[in-house]
Amino acid sequence: MSDRVQQPVVRRGRKDVFRTMAALAAIVVLVYIALLIVTNTSLLGAESFTELVTTERTLGAILLSFAMALGATVIAMVVGVPAAYALSRLRVPGRVVFDTLVDVPIALSPIALGIIIIAMFSTGPGKFLEENVLAFTYAVPGILLAQLTVVCALTVRLLKTAFDDVPPRLEAIARTLGSTRWRAFRRVTLPLARRAIFTAFVISFARAFGEFGATLTVAGAAPGPRETLPVSVFLRYSSLEVGKAAGLILLTMLLAFGVILVLRVLTSPDLRREFS
Amino acid sequence: MIELQGLSVRFGLYHLHEVTTSVESGEYFVVTGPSGSGKTVLLETVIGLNAHYRGRVLLDGVNVRGVPVEARSIAYVPQDYALFPHLSVQGNLMYGVRERRLRHDDVAERLEELLDLLELRTIVTRTRVTGLSAGEQQRVAIARALLSDPAVLALDEPLAFLDDGVRRELMVRLKRVNEELGVTILHATRNLDEALALGRRVAVLVAGRMHQVTRLEGPHLRPADATVARWVAGRNVFPAVVKSADEAAGKATVTCGEAELVGSFHGMRPGPETAVLIGFRPREAFLLPEGAKPPAETNALDATVESVLSYGSTDTVVLDVPKIQAKVEVAVARTTGMGPAPTEGATARLAVPSTLLWILPRE
User: Which positions in chain A have a beta carbon within 8 angstroms of at least one beta carbon in chain B?
Assistant: First the structure.
């Protein structure tokens, strides 16, 4: 036997504080969000919430917000899925440059993007399009374009991460079993990335729904047919109707919570089981 | 038929150098060699998963450069099985059937056959493949590949992670698949015994070079050169000098240290005084029982036991052999009633049959 002192098999227990710390951090985040909701509720004016919400102006804003956000998200997904897949599977030198290029719009302020869009339609082919085909600036299509521009990069980034997580190896194996590239994508990659793709959809939709800066810059801020919910909040706040602004914020919160929850439950098999 | 003509691949650390060989239809062809020798790269280039190569790959005489993977009828069982995690066992099995648009009636019989052959009946109803053991996953992967009705089945270390018993059974089954279904098998393994048990022809790949392709006559592989000998024999490769040679019998007497040994040569003409290498596989030598006379055509050398490792049914014994001034390794199969394993420090007598003592040219 060596002279080395044998370690006891059971080491003296140390309290593992990591779990507690993690839980505390989660509580801090949740409490902060609750604080935001409570503060907003305290700002609610004397007028009835139901009354505010059911005015034609508010209903119009809700409808427009939904339509624009949904439109922008669907377009972003339709373009984003193949684009993100291509970026994910791209094997060319310098692909990190392309990859980073996608992130640039995410870092730009929405107002900056709005300014670029306006500039785009004031010269060259943009101007021709604007004057002869479809008006974007200070028009409803502009809202869609503004939201699409803000959301698109985020959508592609999220989708690329979704595809990055599917091993290309599985596609290769699918092809040894007779799948074409498209069939391998359709039958292997897409189902495996499904959950992350739905997450991308939900987050993109939420981002588009709350979009304000680019919408404001491209379509302007005026009560009426171009007034989305975030614009409405801004207009009420600027005209010192804080109570009404708070009411619309609460409405936005409720809608966001409801829509995102429903989407999430619908798109996650585990949650669907839990709820049924 | 698969033909490789001057196939070269550079692939990070992997490097395949000018491989030229061919595999006949219906053949069981094993590529063996140490880890990292390029076996997987070779397989995946033939399958079409690696487009960056020089040279030519011909399938049934057609150069397949640019031919998509799915247009080649080569099913693949990779080392990591790569089952589809979103599909059930059944979904995995039937994947290729659906993609190749095979008629279910035509496949039904083969499915039944494979369910029995690969013992999949108990797991075929599982809705997830993630809970399967390594061996089960491997069997599903093999069945999935075979159900797609391939002309060639490419297997990469298909037995590596299996229990001994399952491995032996699967080896018998792979042989049957090859013989009864007529599927050409291209099998890569770093296990020489596996290669010798299964292959009709065995190719040895070391560090990206194909050193030999040999049609097996029995359960022995005769190394073509010193590199293969070092891989096959480990430490049992020694320099020697030819004393006399009998070319007709392919036998020669060599001097190694102070010992005079008789070995066999092949494909060389060892004149007297030629510097050569001699070598033998640890499991093709044995220890003589005390006082026993060596059998005919067997070299015998006095030795001292230096270390013994008993693993499974094999004792790996390292011997110090003073006459050749070297350490020699012998793997002795342990059978019941054989008596105790040799003890360290004891004297022993090493025996190497002269047919299994290779005489090879020096590098």
Answer: 167, 169-170, 172-181, 183, 187-188, 191-192
**Please, where are the H alpha helices in A9-54?**
18-43, 49-53
Residues 71-130, chain B: which have Cβ within 8 Å of A? 74-76, 78, 80, 82, 84-86, 95-96, 99-101
pLDDT in tens, A2-21: 567 777 787 776 777 898 89
Query: What Rg, from alpha-carbon coordinates, does chain A have?
Result: 25
H or E segment to which residue B28 belongs = strand B28-32
Give the residue-averaged pLDDT of A37-43: 91
Same domain (yes/no): B197, B268: no
**Are residue B123 and residue B198 in the same domain, yes or no?**
yes
Q: Per the CB < 8 Å rule, is A175 touching B70?
A: yes
Interface test with chain A among B99, B148, B186, by most A beta carbons within 10 Å: B99
Q: How far is it, in rounded angstroms, from Cα A251 to Cα A246?
A: 9
**Does any CB of chain A come closer than 8 Å to the CB of residue B70?**
yes
Residues B219-275: pLDDT tens digits? 889 999 999 999 999 999 999 999 999 988 889 999 999 999 999 998 888 888 889
Same domain, B172 and B71: yes
Within this chain, do residues B210 and B238 fall inside the same structural domain, yes or no? no
Mean pLDDT check: name the lowest of A129-133, A203-207, B320-324.
Answer: A129-133
Same domain, yes or no, for B235 and B211?
Answer: no
Predicted ipTM of the assembly: 0.83
Kindly report whether the global pTM for this prediction surpasses the value 0.90: no
Contact A174 B84 (CB under 8 A): yes
Please report the pLDDT score of residue A269 as a whole number.
67
Q: What percent of chain B has pLDDT over 70?
A: 99
Task: Assign residue B342 the CATH number of its domain.
Answer: 2.40.50.140
What number is the average pLDDT over the span A129-152? 90
Last residue of a domain, one of B196, B226, B256: B226
State whether B145 and A179 contact (CB < 8 Å).
no
Which residue from A minimizes the CA distance to B50? A172
Q: What are the residues facing B75 on neighbouring strands?
A: B153
Q: With bands split at pLDDT 50, 70 and 90, how would you rate the model's confidence at B338?
A: low
Q: Do B76 and A178 touch (CB under 8 A)?
A: no
Contact yes or no for B256/B278 (Cβ under 8 A):
yes
CB pairs under 8 A between A and B: 57
Q: Which two tokens stand for residue B24?
A: 């006949």
Say which residues have a Cβ less than 8 Å from residue A50's Cβ, sequence separation at least 6: none
Phi and psi dihedrals of B289, rounded to 5?
Answer: -60, 155
- The residue from B226, B252, B280 where one domain ends is B226
Inter-axis angle of helices A56-89 and A95-107, nearest 10: 170
Domain co-membership, B169 together with B21: yes
Whether residue B275 is found in the same domain as residue B332: yes
Confidence of residue A1 (pLDDT cuts 50, 70, 90): low
Distance between CA atoms of A21 and B136, rounded to whole angstroms?
Answer: 41
Q: Which residues of A touch B43 (CB under 8 A)?
A: none
Domain A48-275, CATH class in plain words:
mainly alpha
Total domains in the fold of chain B: 2
Give the distance from residue B200's alpha carbon to the nearest chain A alpha carbon, in angstroms.
25
- Which tens digit of pLDDT belongs to each residue from B28-67? 999 999 988 899 999 999 999 988 899 999 999 999 998 9
Q: For B154, which residue in chain A has the nearest alpha carbon?
A: A176
Q: Which tens digit of pLDDT belongs to each residue from A142-170?
A: 999 999 999 999 999 999 999 999 999 99
B64 interfacial to chain A (CB closer than 8 Å): no
Residues of chain B contacting residue A188, judged by C-beta atoms under 8 Å apart: 84, 86
- Report how far Cα B144 is from the mean position of its chain's Cα atoms: 24
Residues B143 and B277 in one domain: no
- Chain B residue numbers with beta carbons less than 8 Å from the beta carbon of A191 are 86
Provide the domain limits for residue B222: 2-226
